[in-house]
Model the fold of this input.
Amino acid sequence: MIILLSAAIAPGLALFSYFYLRNQMATEPRRTLVHTFLYGAFLTFPIMFLQYVLTEEGVFPNAFLQNVLFTSTIEEFFKWFVLLIAIYNHMEFDDPYDGLLYGASISLGFATVENVLYLLSFGLDTAFLRALLPVSSHALFGVVMGYYFGKAKFSKHTKLKEMIAMALCAPVILHILYNTILSFKGHWVYLMVPFMLFLWWFGLRKVKLAHYHLVQHLHMHKKI
Done:
């Protein structure tokens, strides 16, 4: 059991540590990040319950609508909504890179609990593949979401509502693409490899841009 839990939790912690340590200019309070991680972890259960109820009620006419469109949208919406109401106006969200950290944190909280439940059901044989795909993809969806939240709050040259909308729409689109590829039986791996390479490139580009905005933000405050 300890080995299984370690295998389920380790990928999320490793990915979060990577994004956290990239922030060399300022240190975000660990307590707030832990709270955000826990928000994501707790979200797993109402989302799974909602998915179960709607499935049992036969709301969805086909598997694509249920497993791709609905699942992708509802997961990202709940994470976006919690960040918007609980974190966006928080006093400790005080620089552009913070959004990225909070986005990664809430996504990895969700992905970690989901991973624990999955490995408890199907065993350790799938641990490596899940670390490469669901856990890392959730982390990168969160990075993209958090980047746009940071841009909405701290960029003077962007429209607030547009960036907050992008914080939801961008990860939803990426998540839909990810789940669409998984829905292809037999040949999904040939599409997943280039998609994951693109997702890592896109996510790391947002990390680089968020770090640049952080440097600009700190430089501006030094002048003041």
